[in-house]
Amino acid sequence: MIQSLAVEREKLKQRLLQLGSEVENNLIKAEKALINFDPKLAAEIVSADVGIDDLEISVEEKCMQIFARHQPVAGDLRFVVTVLKINNDLERIGDLAAKIADRILLLARKEYVPFSSQQTAQFPEQFRQMFAESIKMVKMSLDSFVDMDADLAYKVRLWDDQVDEAKKAIRVQIEAIIQSDSSQQQYLGMLLSVSRSLERIADHATHIAEDVIYMLQGLIVRHVTEGRGRMGG
Amino acid sequence: MTAQATPIMQITDAIVEVKDLHLYYGDSEALRGITMSIPRKKVTALIGPSGCGKSTFIRCFNRMNDLIESIRISGEITIDDQDIYDNSVDVIELRRRVGMVFQKWNPFPKSIYENVIYGLRIAGVRDKNLLDETVEKSLKRAALWDEMKDRLHESAMGMSGGQMQRLCIARAIAVSPEIILMDEPCSALDPRSTSRIEELIRELQGDYTIIIVTHNMQQAARVSDFTAYFYIGELVEFGLTKRVFTSPVRKETEDYITGRFG
Fold it and tell me: What is d(CA B4, CA A67) in angstroms, rounded to the nearest whole number?
């Protein structure tokens, strides 16, 4: 019984990490697909999301089985609850990557020529930054889970502000371009939507980090600033 | 980080105060300086591996340990500020105030009716109406009335194990105790009878202070408001059950309740 719970925990962890790595892959592809305006790669992302959804369900089922068979308490309980929550966040991140891919496909169907090739405006540099930071946050949050590293989890929360700043900067820039050249409206609208998706991806990564903090310290730090939390339960 | 819980919680409305309680069986020290408060009209579960002293500990509350000659006790236990080891204490009266239910039900080979009012009979109560009322009230409280109201004068020995255990609880309740001690009351019962006793414990909470010793972690988590973890005669952790079972402060507690040890 005791050993088998440890074995089940390890299996559950591996399955969650598999989900994490597929979500990360899709995010990296989404960046490439956007920057290179590559509908073929975007289609790959959308089809890979089906596998991500299946994995999410299998992680959830595994959690349910552990609850039913082992009635975990204390650290074991916090672990399984945390996996369940991270699972949700990862699936949402996967959906957002697919949503970015969808935007690219939508524009491709309209035979849209991206503005970067028209040289009328610069591709906002903050996008690269936003992608890099969001992907890094997802990776760091999962690392904090694997390495049981609360300090790293606290760092993820700090990054979130930078992503928010980048999103604001992008919006200001895009709005300025739309005012000077309304023909770009559709493409720029898509970019705005992508920046919102990236911001939400960063939010989900922050949730994952907060759940890791709860798992490790029993502290609920959501809705609380300055790294202070309250005891759960 | 804030709000870090302490291993031993302070209780504001306590009925029992235990101060530096030591208990020796001959040369062996079974309780090694326990200091804790028992919250009034709540359920407190005592958990810990066999031999950790939890049964010995609750037997101090009604002085059951007095019956064992080799025992020495030091320290203090007060119930509502009365030192229960003071020479002036009437032990019979103490045991009326502090009832007990054991692991193996122990009804007397008498009728169900006589079992319930046994305590009142000893106290010399003869008023038939009062006895009848007490039987009905106690059996209702123990969730036995509907099943037993037509069998009151049959022998208690014909009841099922779960029913007998509820009868023992009715018998304990009949003398209006303030505290009910339960020493593994469900360990010999099947799951259905166990859940009936657990429901009963939840219902009695609020009217009585209940202290329950259990080896079943999930039972402690289900029925109690507070949990105390004992290990080799020491109180390791004491706090709200909902906290102890989600975020124990001490690693020893975590290892025990997650089954990694003990």
Answer: 27
